[in-house]
Amino acid sequence: MDSEWDRIILILAAPFIAVVALPIVLPRVREWIVEKLLTYEVVVPASDAVIQIPSTGVGLDVARIVIGVGIMVIVVSAVRGAVKRSGQER
Length: 90
Known about the structure:
There is one protein chain. The protein has 90 residues and is mainly α. It has helices at residues 3-39, 62-89, and strands at 44-45, 51-53, 58-60. The longest helix is centred in the N-terminal third of the chain and has 37 residues, at 3-39.
């Protein structure tokens, strides 16, 4: 088979595969991810959460929100510093 025909078949089949496979795979993947996040205590059950993540049954409590905000501040500061230094080198 010609490689161009392979591409055409893939382009035609990809939407069909996505429509059939994604509704089957995504809920299982979401359940697995939520289970792992709860196991490693990244999130808390919705009953203990201050902010809930819709349709997952989990959320964030105050401690995790503070940690997340702190990490975001550190990352933004580091990126701004790197951009400022690269701008001065020019």
